[in-house]
Amino acid sequence: MADYNPAETGIMIDAATTVDRDDAIWIEPDGDGFDVWIHISRVADHVPTGGRADTEARQRVHTRYRTERTKHMLPAPVVAAAGLEPGRDNDTFAVRLRLDAAGHVLAADLGPGRLTRSWVLTHDAAARAAADPAHPLHATLALALRFAQTMLAARRNAGALAFYDLLSGFATNEEGQLVRLDSAERNSGYIIVQEFMIAANAQIAAWAVREDVPILFRNHRLATVAGDPAELRAELETIAAAGDSAAFEMLRTRMRMVARAATYGPTVHGHHGLQLPAYTHATSPIRRYPDLLTQRILLAGALGQPSPYPVDELKAAADHVNEVVEAERRAKTEYFKQRAAEETARHIDTADFARLPYKQFSRVLQFAVDQGEVPDGLVRDAERRFGAGELQLREFASVYLYGREAFAPLRERMNDHLAREPQQAQSIVNVYLQDRLGGPISNDTDVLWTVEAAPGFETPLFSAQVAVLYDGKRVESPKRLQRNKKDARNQAALALVATLAGLPDRSGDATAKARGDGPRKLLVDAAVNPAEAVQIYAARGALEHLTWDFRVDGPSHERIFTCRAEGRMRDGGEHVAAEGAGPTKQTAKTAASLELRVHIETALALGETGSRAGA
Questions:
Q1: For FRET with 383, which of 17, 215, 311, 433 sits at 20 to 30 Å CA-CA?
Q2: Helix (H, G, I), strand (E, B), or coil: what is residue 114?
Q3: What is the pLDDT of residue 280?
Q4: Any idea which architecture 423-518 has in CATH?
Q5: Residue limits of the DRBM domain (predicted)?
Q6: What is the pTM of this model?
Q7: pLDDT band at 61, cuts 50/70/90?
């Protein structure tokens, strides 16, 4: 492509129905790295602060897309003038990133830009161009896809809950919820756009932090009961790969329950869904008011001018946006609740529940459980759907926890199912508490876990106990002993949900031999793998205060994990420590364990020698 300026060139990738285009991307190789440009429509030039269009945009907060029509945040003439259009020169706010091959940002420049050469592609067309060497934009889009995959891998390695399943059409959004993609978005073109915009927003936020310029940061926190995002993602990928639709829906429901809504504010609190220290929304100023407000601040900062918004005014704007978005969320919930009640009333007397779509069936089932009046045939259909793996978490939990006499046989089957799949019990605990509290739950005040090493056994064991607090009550599980913390937690939760449901407790403890007080074998058999041997020494009491610490270094595609293991010998108080490295946590842990085992057994051998000499 001759005679072009890469800094003024871009590709707009949008849905086929998009009319308000506000971003374009371009990427070029530069040595071993990339030069990336993200162009954002310079809407601030067309919407004077405090003018009529600005006032209306502040009230509307964002563009509302409906099936029947779109209600734009800005007037149509402003959208037409400010939007990016191919075939004309466009004033933009440009973000230029210089990255190395691993996706590390080496430099970021922000400021006014221009887009003088551009193309428009749908997501699907961009995906096809990236795969077709004959396409005129193939080289750029193939590189763009490589960049997107590199950035995605870096975020995932940092622990982000980032998941795309283009075959089934599910992906995680910024807030850690699973959302269904439109059919036109189930391709790599969608991933390209998402990762470029996340990169731009993250670097804009980082610039604002470095320059100490308050903007509207996008802050997000997961619920305390959500768990590690990386573990949630791994569980999600395992279930998706197995094609287990029932487990997938249960996890999807659980993720929706523990997700929190992100909010805007002039101070930084991090974005846990994306696992980024600072984040903002700045790439859609035509359709989001926070992006427009932030763009005004960025333009002023790039020109060396003070922010047009004092901090208190910025906070007031953030509070207003948050309140409007939350009010819309509540109104939407109430609207669908009302519609659900109307539909349930129409279907509750039906004689053929098997013909009901799942959403309607779930409402009828919930109504029957709540009222204690079960129509003929509903229990049989619930049993059929349970046997087919169709019952989702909400309906499973309702019947299991609250079902009355008519559901007794099904509840027993569910209890047996949980005994076989105890990892699902913690989700049932969450449902129960949310029902009691009528809202979000907290590990600090509502659900309390005690998980610790259990001494006194020949092999390593962990003890777990869980308690829930609500309405001045405390209900707790018995302690459960297992060979690892995860299994111990699952068994404790299994015991608790059985108590809450008034059903037989199917939980249990791992079998282990108690450590005797008399003479005992000191050294672990040489055939036992090093990590397990170290744990056995800790379980036998020879090693105290055992800890494992991990760190990760290197580029996203060549991660090196380092494990440091250390503890103190009970007899003599000698401190023992070792480090190991490898491409995975497990290999690093094994390497560290191998060395630590030598230190432990050397100390034990010296201790025995000293004892015999003293005797």
A1: 433
A2: strand
A3: 96
A4: 2-Layer Sandwich (3.30)
A5: 529-602
A6: 0.61
A7: very high
